[in-house]
Design goal:
The protein is built from 8 helices and 19 strands. It has 375 residues and is an alpha+beta fold. The chain has a 6-stranded mixed beta sheet, with helices on both faces. It has a 6-stranded antiparallel beta barrel with strand order 14-17-16-15-18-19. The chain has a 5-stranded antiparallel beta sheet with strand order 5-6-7-4-8, with helices on one face. Helix 2 packs across helix 7.
């Protein structure tokens, strides 16, 4: 199998340990998952996220079309504003969770999970009939980086032509980073403050330009102890923040109501794909819900592990790890609603042995000390 590569493959090959992910050869780690994870929590880290899908949705009815295929209302967004949303099938199952930015007049940028890029593109184009809209996959023409951590703004501010303090969470705008014209959004997948940077018109074959931007950010961030970070730290960071991973915590058999994503399901919209099924599920009641769990004993929860209470199976884990920050096991999983109350003690089967966990509300860390809203 020939794996896809990003513009920065040579850097990753020289400095990192590579792994296969979503059909791409990507860095799992450089120095190590723990130091990279802690760099983002305490200072700043830089990720290559070019493997993500990026679609341009344009046309007179772009907003109307997006409101039909997404559960969330994006038609009310101002230019520069973004929304986290899900795209469901007619049964209410999640085809993908994604971010949509209103980047210009009748023009939207959709950022999708790498593993769903081809599936999403086919699904979206399969529903354009009757709408004045055009959808283009520009993933291979755009470099995408993520700079994350409490020192992310300080790192970029010295080389940017605008005051980053004025850029609000989930908003974006065109900026100049040194000599690079980029689109920057205040978003990320770590729970920390940070930015995602899009370098337009940069085909995969033009790696030199991408490498210069990557090196510029690393060199500028040296005074803040910046580290290049791989997929390993990206996963542990998102899990500490309680963020779902498609394919683990979300899939086409899971609805946004079960995943506690009610806030991005706007039933007041006239219509969207899956609305009827989700309304019925809401009326009938859920059969399972997503919860966070933290270990009270030694043990690491793993995806697929059974969750039990008094020897009765009440659910299964979908994600789990040992928290580099907290130094104990944490995870996400689905349980029967009657056992989902915060503080409930359950057992997770780890290496064929029951380990005691407590149901908690993510994020798992102290939000006064860590994360985007830290004091």
């Amino acid at each position: 199998m020939v794996l896809n590569r990003t513009h920065l493959h040579e850097f990753h090959k020289k400095r990192g340990r590579l792994t296969e992910f979503a059909g791409f050869e990507m860095p799992l780690l450089y120095e190590g998952i723990v130091p990279e994870h802690l760099a983002v929590r305490n200072a700043v880290g830089l990720f290559d996220v070019t493997h993500m899908g990026r679609f341009m949705v344009e046309g007179k009815e772009a907003a109307v079309f997006l409101n039909y295929i997404l559960t969330r209302n994006v038609g009310t967004t101002s230019v520069g504003q973004g929304r986290y949303a899900v795209m469901c099938n007619v049964k209410g199952g999640i085809i993908d969770d994604l971010v949509v930015f209103h980047i210009g007049d009748e023009k939207f940028l959709m950022v999708n999970n790498a593993s769903n890029r081809n599936k999403d593109y086919e699904w979206i184009n399969g529903h354009t009939e009757g709408f004045q809209v055009e959808v283009r996959d520009v993933s291979d023409e755009v470099l995408m980086l993520a700079i994350q951590g409490p020192k992310a703004a300080d790192t970029l501010q010295s080389i940017v032509d605008s005051d980053l303090a004025s850029l609000r969470y989930y908003w974006g705008k065109c900026l100049t980073l040194d000599s690079f014209k980029v689109y920057v959004t205040r978003t990320g997948y770590t729970g920390e403050d940070g930015f995602e940077i899009y370098l337009w018109e940069t085909p995969l074959a033009e790696s030199e330009r991408a490498e210069r931007l990557w090196q510029l950010i690393l060199e500028t961030g040296e005074e803040h102890n910046i580290k290049p970070c791989g997929l390993g730290a990206r996963d542990t960071l998102r899990l500490e923040a309680g963020m779902c991973l498609y394919g683990n915590d979300l899939d086409e058999e899971t609805t946004p109501l079960e995943a506690k994503l009610d806030f991005i399901v706007q039933f007041e919209k006239e219509d969207f794909i899956g609305k009827e099924t989700l309304l019925k599920q809401k009326a009938d009641g859920l059969k399972r819900v997503l919860v966070g769990v933290r270990a009270l004993d030694r043990g690491i929860p793993r995806a697929g592990s059974k969750i039990t209470l008094d020897e009765k199976e009440i659910g299964k884990m979908t994600s789990g790890t040992f928290s580099p920050l907290l130094k104990y096991g944490i995870g996400l999983g689905y349980v029967l609603p009657e056992y989902s109350e915060i503080g409930t003690r359950v057992q997770v089967i780890s290496r064929d042995k029951p380990v005691t966990f407590e149901i908690v509300k993510p994020p798992f860390y102290n939000t006064e000390k860590y994360g985007r809203r830290r004091a």
